[in-house]
Task: structure prediction
Amino acid sequence: MAVQRVFCTFIFVVTVLSNASAQDTTPSPRRQPKWCPVEVEEVIPYRRRSGSRTECRRACTWNRFCCEYNIIPVYTTAYRKVSHQEWKCCDDTLPCPDETLSVDTPYKGIQLFADEYPVPPLPYEYDALEPYIDEKTARIHHLGHHAGYIKKMNAALKAWRDEVGPGVGLQSNSILHILENLEQVPEKHRTAIRNNGGGFVNHAIYWATMSPRGESEPPRLPEATLATEIIANFQNFSNFQEQFTNTAKTLFGSGYVWLSRNPREQTLIIHTTANQDSPISDRLRPILVIDIWEHAYYLKHQNRRPEHIQDWWELVDWGQVKALSDWWAAYDAGHDEL
Result:
């Protein structure tokens, strides 16, 4: 009996120790992300980084972002889009940022990092620009040409990022920052990013600075500080419009005519770019543009470019031009609310 009691005691002790050991080696569950709802208006599905990479590295692995936006578009009317936006924090001990993001025009989002940029929705229907830009041209231009540039840009960015790998570098920045520093892009990827990144951004600004025009709407003219700037740089609005129109008529081949601000001199200039080159790569701040590629007008006007230019003037929205100018000012000031 004594031997049996000793043996049973031994088995009991071994069993208890084994169970304790198993419990000690069981990995603790990883912290789960915390979702923080933020209501915003006019959002398209971009992701953005929050905080500096150094701040992220304190809480996350070195090649991950601390937080990202997850945005679900919700269509509410024919012309407006709103969304419920959420922050995804990589550690549930981190506080949720008290911030909202408004992305209500096609260019808002170019300053944000994205693994893959989506085609930005237009702030109007394809037939809303009639009779100045026909529905078929607007649809093909947006879903065919603009979307095509975005698809090729995403492929070029992916090839570059896959080659370099995650980490601190130009490839981990927004398309806006990349275009600003185009000369630093590796030569093997530079042409594709110049052509297709430029095609993405140039078209986004083109769509954003037009809006549908009512039948009885009075002539559209710049107002307030923008009108003052145009007068200071071009003497009067008529002179500015004439210079811009003549530049558009005489541009050889395909490209764009721009009204841009030179931030170094704080002057407004009329200038051109060929193909899909972007003024951003010259450190200019474009606020108005006309697309002179034939795909922008050929279905309606064939080879009659002056008619396209005349119709485009009817759609220029000077309120949106001013909004873009203010957006650039906020971007250059380093504001996060863009």
About this structure: Residues 16-103 have pLDDT under 50 and may be disordered.
